[in-house]
Amino acid sequence: MREPQTTIQKSLPVTAPGDFGEIEPPRPRRKIGRWILLLLLAVGAWFGWNQYMGSSTLEAAGAPGSFDESSHNVVAPEGVRIKVEVQNATATRGLARRATLYLRDRGFDVVAFGNASERRDSTLVLDRSGHPDWAALIASAMKGKVESRPDSSRYLDVTVLVGSDWRPPALPFYP
Fold first, then answer.
1. How far apart are CA 107 and CA 114, in angstroms?
2. Dihedral pair phi/psi, residue 148, rounded to 5°
3. Which residues contact 163 (CB under 8 A, 6 or more apart)?
4. 100 and 41 belong to one structural domain
């Protein structure tokens, strides 16, 4: 019988998987990029939360159209029906409706709302019936200016021209 031939192969040194020769000490990682990313995320989250909750630098400065506690406390006098017309004098859709809800929540009788033909930067409250104190009350609620423009053909006491400086309150109308 014939003996099987055996070939001797040179064996390679046995290594562990992933071992590619000399082991180098690991380089220290720079974590500054991660900290910057974390900082940017935190600032973005803070800014987003403030925008969601409605606070801004305008409100903090008490700018026209921003809300503070004094404008939230304005309500219509008890036993008096003040008929109000609200007109949107901006390109922002739905602003007259939001102002209508705002004034109705404070007890004013908003009988009409719609769009004005003129555009305004600031809110203007027009006294139509010779009651400047009523117009001043609404102007303090809307942070606007008062003008007297009597018009007996309208069955209104006050007309509000909502300007682009007016911002609806951040608080929900109906939670």
1. 19
2. -100, 115
3. 65, 89, 90, 120, 121, 122, 123, 124, 144
4. no
Q: Give, in degrees to the nearest 5, the angle at Cα 101 between 124 and 167.
A: 50
What is the pLDDT, as a whole number, of residue 172?
A: 61
pTM for the whole thing?
A: 0.58
The span from the CA of 38 to the CA of 131, in Å, is: 57
> Are 158 and 107 in the same domain?
yes
Q: What is the DSSP letter of 163?
A: -
Residues 101 and 68 in one domain: yes
Q: Residue 128: which of 108, 105, 161, 152 has the closest Cα?
A: 152
What is the mean pLDDT, run by run of 10 residues, along the chain of 175 residues? 62 58 65 82 83 53 49 80 94 92 92 94 93 92 92 89 89 59
The conformation of residue 92, written as its DSSP 8-state character, comes to: -
